[in-house]
Design goal:
Cytochrome Bc1 Complex, Chain A, domain 1; 7-stranded mixed β-sheet; 25 strands; zinc
């Protein structure tokens, strides 16, 4: 539920007394509910004489930085039939063609742009002062935005560049996720242009427009009164009156599913629209109800939003309870109700996802739970529980008033204004919410459920709904019952004989990929009237030719009809309207505490603190390490991360062991319970304490992340859960089977995702058949037993292998007491293995199975070996059978680790890591915390973080060159990136370049990217490039330090003996390190990379119907290249070196950031 208040948005609210569940609800009078909400007192809306509007809101975070967004009220729905994609192309040309925008590069500013159905938005995040000129940045930023919107040049050269970029963007983004999104929107909005005017447009039209057409559309959309400028900064400014907005667009007409004029008795259920494709993996059914946006302007509107949130929360909890039953027939069931400024409406959506063969059971469960909630509403205890939790959530989130980033505030303001909501001061929002929530009664929530959920509960039974309304009109909340407006089923073309999915990719929900995005043909599966609207897309009205092709090996055709699905939705079971018994009890504080009272807490703990970094390190006598840092980033909230050394690096190869840690952690998460508690009780305990937790594994660690509200015992509650997880985890056979099924599903989908499969092939070539750093295969997952998974995971949960990092707004004394009490009493699950308190569902284990479980246990990391395969395997090419042509390529190779072992004895940078003295002086005599110079503090010799810093700077320079050359000058791609995969503990790493293009040009794009890497040694990195990279990274770090998650990342492995160079002092020195780095330091790091043909790995993947789209890999047949040998021809060498020359004069700072256009 996306309510427009402090209820959902993470914005600030005043501290008020939380509502007590024990208090009696006091009815709120109708007169009070009609009171108007008061607009944010600091929000200024200024109308200029030309009709434009400026919106200004002061904000303190991040310090000395501001956001400025220029919103043009023109998007894809404003295009005529022969202009599809013109708004997006104009956005590209005006944004990237602005010379004044280029002056922002290297200042630490980030800029970007996007186009959606109704808007084109240009946005800048910038520092308050230009570091080069010393002048305020706000006038410079507004001047650039003014040029972009009102004074664009529309140079012919820029038009052609962006024409290529838009074409490449369409290729890159044409994933199954996008195609499913198009299908959902096409049927949901079949009565208006939202169903066919997707922002990316039609590529044949993009290729055809001349400059006159582009200029005409651009000038027409930015003429007053269409734009608006929204700006958030540390304080109001006189410069804010330069830009602004007002919109006069005719509204898009919708066919509503609720409201006045709805003729319920005569309303027929919409048919089920079917979209079937070979690359889809799961059955996904979406039931929609489109209703007008209810502007949030009165207390009554806020109250309704609160009740809606209660309904959604209750249904999700009930569905979760069904999911943990043995062999549930669904993957997920989700109910959402949200406003969409992008689509200009509100949409209720019931989404059901299942394996193909289980679709009837999944629809059955979803319909049953929705009908129960629609008929009976919520119980008093459910209302009381969620009222308390949601108000505490509102209060806790609202405490972040002074620290919520401007970008979040700005998105909220822009969306609120677009939807007609009153923009509230979060403090006022919470006070109003607390007032109206106190009077909400269960019967009122029940009436809202009757109206809001009838679109799904009474699908196909609209006549019955009309009769029920006539018999009991008072049982429905205004504006009355709702009916479905669209039903869309996205289903796979094939499944296996058991009804499980054949290889494919998972479908996703509506709207996730449409903004400033790409358009593909969605005519396949559309009715004739809609298919006509999508004709001419180059697909001949069919999404695929599955009916003519052979069935894949091991698969059968998945057959389901629209009528069958509609019948399943209409079917009513005998117990559909019988209320289920609810969970009355939650895991009490006293009950959870009993497990820690049996052990005496550790009293022997060592402490190290650093005033410079604010970090405190402790180690308990049982071996658990503790790092913490207090921040005000999220007032009255804390983030915790418990890591266990090991992760997938300690998985053993072979059947029954490979994947044991990966799948085992997921099995433990699926169990969702600890000690003697049921899963529902643990969930309710977390809800009552506002604890969110995630358990997962990566290459190096087992990780449990928790986010918690500090007040009312939340921090202690989180540590109680950690205690129980470490002492009494519950292993369930049913949870293990669900986890195994998830990984099998993910693995089977690999071969039908172009990007995933291409990346997997290059990892196989680089690291061999060992899947240690890849997902386990279905065969490996199938061989796992519960005992093997349990043994592998619990071996890593020993106390002396654990490190807890805590960052947030908490009292250090309270934290240390709670850590001592709950973690200081941990002796490890191994010590309690034979106690009855550990509940494990029965699994028959014979002697051989026990031996297999023991073989899965490892206490040391497995070494990583890079392979040296023949050239044909090192450089590979493959094709994915698909209805749409796309191309992607990866180049990869071995890279250095990101942490060095540290300096030699006597080097001050490593002193604290050895002897724990945080205030030690460096060997040069410079006091810690004092800003050093390069002369007294040699960068690359003494700093443990040197590799981390130089790798980040080098990556920034490389990405900048890739964007300028491959994307901007050669026009070979829309997206190209250089990324590093480094680890804290493991002494290995690798790098990769990812690039996308058309199948015909993907080889050329890959070779151009490789040429950029190799010219790093011949085209000297300049001081200007380094300066811009440094400013970009320092600006990013400044923003990141306001995020508790960033500090958790830094604190991880701070006390690990496997990372001896990581210390409190090196964390404090990061900014100094960035400032001291030189071009020579970058070239010293560059020596760690080898970009020759026989050192790199590459893979090109193409999709489409034509198996001859690309004949050969550019590197597979060529002779080995020496460092001095020339590269294979990329097509236009002159253009390439022209790009390099242009880069040296006007270098950018990276793809998609300051120079990118979304």
């Amino acid at each position: 539920m996306q309510a427009r208040s402090g209820l959902v948005e993470r914005s600030s609210v005043p501290r008020t007394a939380p509502f007590s569940a024990a208090e009696d609800a006091v009815a709120t009078s109708d007169a009070v509910l009609e009171e108007r909400l008061q607009q944010h007192k600091d929000l200024r809306i200024v109308y200029l004489e030309n009709g434009l509007r400026v919106v200004i809101l002061p904000n303190k975070a991040p310090v000395d930085r501001f956001e400025a967004h220029l919103e043009v009220h023109a998007g894809s729905v404003d295009e005529r039939v022969d202009e599809q994609g013109l708004a997006h192309l104009v956005e590209h040309v005006t944004f990237l063609g602005s010379r004044k925008r280029e002056t922002l590069l290297g200042t630490g500013a980030r800029s970007n742009a996007y186009t959606d159905f109704h808007h084109t938005v240009f946005h800048v995040h910038a520092p308050g002062t230009n570091a080069t000129t010393g002048r305020p940045m706000l006038p410079q930023v507004l001047d650039a935005l003014a040029e972009i919107a009102f004074e664009p040049e529309f140079l012919p050269s820029r038009i052609e560049k962006e024409r290529k970029a838009v074409t490449a963007e369409a290729q890159m983004m044409n994933t199954m996720e996008y195609r499913v999104d198009c299908q959902l929107l096409a049927f949901l909005h079949e009565e208006n242009n939202l169903g066919c005017r997707f922002p990316i447009g039609k590529m044949e039209q993009v290729a055809s427009w001349d400059r006159e057409a582009i200029v005409g559309f651009g000038h027409g959309t930015t003429a007053p009164p269409t734009p608006r400028c929204t700006c958030l900064s540390p304080a109001p400014s006189k410069h804010m009156t330069l830009l602004p907005d007002l919109s006069l667009r005719p509204p898009v007409r919708h066919a509503w599913g609720s409201g006045p004029g709805l003729r319920l008795a005569a309303r027929a259920a919409p048919p089920v629209s079917l979209f079937q494709h070979r690359l889809l993996q799961l059955f996904q059914l979406s039931v929609f109800c489109k209703v007008p946006v209810q502007p949030m302007t009165r207390l009554e509107d806020l109250r309704r939003a609160f009740m809606t949130r209660v309904l959604l929360s209750v249904l999700q909890f009930r569905v979760n309870a069904r999911y943990v039953e043995a062999d549930p027939p669904f993957v997920s069931i989700e109910l959402d109700h949200s406003d969409s400024g992008r689509e200009g409406c509100a949409v209720s959506t019931l989404t059901i996802t299942s394996e193909p063969g289980d679709w009837r059971g999944a629809v059955r469960v979803a319909a049953q739970e929705v009908r129960r909630l629609q008929r009976h509403g919520v119980s008093e205890s459910e209302l009381s529980r969620y009222r308390t939790a949601l108000l505490r959530d509102s209060e806790q989130l609202a405490e972040a008033a002074e620290s919520t980033p401007s970008a979040e505030h700005l998105d909220f303001v822009m969306e609120s204004l677009a939807l007609g909501h009153t923009v509230l001061d979060p403090r006022d929002a919470h006070a109003a919410l607390a007032a109206v929530a106190a009077g909400v009664r269960a019967d009122e929530v029940g009436r809202l459920a009757r109206s809001l959920l009838s679109f799904a509960s009474h699908y196909g039974r609209e006549a019955e709904l009309a009769a029920e309304l006539e018999a009991e009109p008072g049982a429905y909340a205004p504006p009355g019952p709702s009916v479905a407006t669209a039903v869309v089923a996205c289903v796979p073309a094939f499944s296996d004989a058991a009804g499980q999915h054949a290889p494919g990719t998972v479908a996703v929900g509506r709207g996730g990929s449409l903004t400033t995005s790409q358009h593909v043909d969605v005519a396949g599966g559309l009715p004739p009237d809609l298919a006509e609207r999508f004709s001419g897309e180059g697909n001949d009205g069919a999404p695929d030719d599955d009916k003519e092709e052979e069935v894949p090996e091991g698969a059968v055709r998945f057959s389901v009809t629209s009528d069958e699905i509609a019948a399943a939705l209409r079917e009513v079971g005998d117990d559909d309207f019988v209320a289920r018994p609810e969970v009355q009890a939650i895991a009490s504080d006293q009950g959870v505490n009993t497990t820690s009272s049996t052990s005496a807490p550790s009293t022997n703990a060592s402490t190290i603190a650093s005033a410079a970094s604010g970090v405190v390190r402790r180690r308990l006598s049982n071996g658990i390490a503790l790092n913490y840092r207090t921040t005000s980033n999220e007032p009255r909230a804390a983030s915790l991360r418990l890591i266990a050394q090991g992760g997938r690096a300690r998985e053993r190869p072979g059947a029954g062991a490979a994947g044991a840690v990966t799948v085992g952690v997921r099995a433990l998460s699926e169990s969702g319970t600890v000690g003697a508690w049921q899963r529902e009780q643990v969930e309710l305990f977390c809800i009552s304490k506002l604890i969110n937790c995630v358990l997962e594994t990566d290459e190096e660690h087992l990780v449990m992340d928790l986010h918690v509200a500090v007040g009312d015992g939340g921090l202690a509650g989180a540590l109680q859960l950690l205690h129980l997880l470490l002492e009494r985890p519950v292993w369930q056979a049913s949870a293990a089977e669900r986890a195994k099924q998830m990984y099998v599903s993910h693995a089977r989908g690999l071969g039908s995702s172009l990007e995933r499969a291409t990346a997997d092939r290059i990892m196989r070539a680089m690291l061999g058949p060992d899947r240690q750093f890849r997902e386990p295969s279905p065969e490996e997952v199938g061989a796992l037993t519960l005992g093997a998974m349990r043994a592998a995971v619990e071996a890593q949960l020993a106390p002396d292998n654990l490190e807890l990092s805590v960052v947030g707004d908490f009292d250090p004394g309270e934290l240390e007491d709670a850590v001592l009490k709950y973690l200081g009493t941990v002796v490890g699950v191994g010590a309690r293995r034979n106690e009855d308190a550990i509940t494990v569902e029965a699994e028959t284990v014979d002697g051989s199975a026990e031996a297999l479980a023991a073989s899965a246990v490892a206490t040391t990391d497995r070494p990583t070996v890079f392979c040296d395969p023949p050239r044909s395997e090192r450089h590979s090419l493959w094709q994915l059978r698909d209805s749409d042509a796309r191309g992607c390529a990866f180049i990869a190779g071995r890279g250095p680790p990101r942490w060095r072992a540290g300096a030699e004895e006597g080097d001050g940078a490593a002193t604290e890591g050895r002897d724990g003295v945080a205030t030690a002086e460096r060997a040069t005599g410079t006091p810690a915390g004092t800003k050093s110079t390069a002369a007294t503090y040699p960068f690359s010799k003494q700093a443990a973080a040197a590799a981390l810093v130089t790798l980040a700077l080098l990556a920034e320079v490389v990405n900048s060159r890739l964007f300028t050359t491959v994307r901007d000058t050669l026009g070979l791609t829309y997206d190209v990136s250089f990324e590093l995969a480094g680890f804290d503990r493991l002494p290995v790493g690798w790098w990769h370049v990812a690039v996308t293009s058309t199948p015909a040009r993907i080889g050329e794009a890959m070779m151009a990217s490789l040429r950029v890497l190799r010219t790093l040694r011949t085209q000297q990195i300049t001081g200007r490039e380094l300066t811009r990279a440094r400013r970009t990274l320092l600006a990013r770090q400044e923003t990141d330090t306001k995020d508790n998650g960033f500090w958790l990342m830094l604190l991880g492995n701070l006390q690990s003996p496997a990372v001896p160079g990581k210390s409190i002092q090196c964390l404090a020195d990061l900014q100094t390190m960035y400032e001291l780095a030189t071009v020579d330091d970058l070239y010293e790091m560059l020596q760690e990379f080898d970009f020759s043909d026989d050192a790199i790995f590459s893979c090109i993947g193409v999709s489409g119907r034509d198996p001859e789209a690309i004949q050969a890999h550019p590197l597979a047949q060529s002779a080995p290249a020496s460092p001095k040998s020339s590269l294979p021809d990329i097509g236009d060498v002159d253009a390439f070196f022209s790009a390099v020359k242009s880069f040296m004069q006007h270098s950018t700072t990276g793809k998609g950031g300051q120079a990118g256009s979304a």
